[in-house]
Amino acid sequence: MKKVLVLTMVFVLAVMLAVSFSLAGCKQETAAETEAAETEAAETEAAETEAAETEAAETEAAETEAAAGPYDIAFVVKSQAQPFWIHVRIGGMNYAKENPDKINATLYAAKDDAAVEEGLAILEDVLVTEPDAVVMALINPETMAPIAERFIEAGIPAVMCGDSIKQYNDNYSAEFLSYDYGGGEMAAEYLIDYLKANNKPLTGKIAIHSALAGLVSLQNRCNGFQDKVMELAPDMEFLEWVYSDVDSMKEVTLTQDQISAYGDELTCVYLDAGPTLPAAIQVFREQGVSDKITLIGWDSSPEAIAGLEDGNLKGLVLQDPFQIGYQSMEAALKILEGGSLNLEGEIIPRDNLLPTVVFDKDDVGTQEAAEFLDPTLIEIK
After folding, report:
1. Does residue 225 have a pLDDT over 70?
2. Mean pLDDT lowest for which of 108-122, 139-153, 234-248, 293-307?
3. Burial bucket for residue 175 (CB in 10 Å: 0-12, 13-18, 19+)
4. What is this structure's pTM?
5. Would you identify the CATH topology of the domain 69-172+321-349?
6. Who wins on pLDDT, 53 or 345?
7. Which CATH fold would you assign to the domain 180-318?
């Protein structure tokens, strides 16, 4: 009997131990499963939170951009009376029209190149409208420099287009200019090459006709021309510079008087700007002196192209007004997008010089030349 009782107790203990081990294993397995589930849930929650935050940030950025809309940029052009400024306008407005979601450009223009007071009044009015930026082709840099400074003081980026105010102050965001001095040098090199190619002596008198006194860009064109001629042909003699004051009738008188006064001694007449070049071409045509006197001028116009074609104008120095306008507008947008006035040049270079070229009769006729000379052919309407 005792033996049976002992065996029974042993059996019961064995069963209890087995059940205990089984329960422990189940508990361990359940804990591991719970921990894994909790980890997975936490990871899922973190991923969902990150996705929600990213979506919210993207939505906020999109809403901010949509609220801002395109930047308002005032485009103040010197005038629309001359082809050069028409081409500047086409370049700038083409860039704006290529980027309608980013730029809302408003065009302003004085009646002519000499309308200083009108140009100043336009800029005063533009300042009151508080545009996001202004691209300005200045009538008279000395007069316009103070108002350019006022744009900067108002937190409005100011991009100089075609003329510079840096000799008066440095309150501008960027400037895009022709390399005027270099263009004058190119004109001088063209003159010397032309004279040599046509077996003409490197002597005689040279007349410089400037459109306006005191305009630095024009002074650079004349200085570059005179300096290079004297380097290449020191026996040449320069007459005292004369000024047409952007008056075609005055240019006619100046050209006629010098042809009459110096006759065969006059080797070259050089004009530094486009507005009065047609008048000089017409005098040469009427007097038939193009074989004796070499006429060289600046800037494209239908009359200038006709002068090249009929031989009365020998060389035409060409800026790239389309690119001046185009790159000025592009710079204004980049400065705005960078959130800066760009006074230290951190967004784009502040001072930008665009090269010139010299065309003669042989350069006229190709499609590329036609578009360069007349950007109305590629104007976006």
Report:
1. yes
2. 108-122
3. buried
4. 0.71
5. Rossmann fold (3.40.50)
6. 345
7. Rossmann fold (3.40.50)
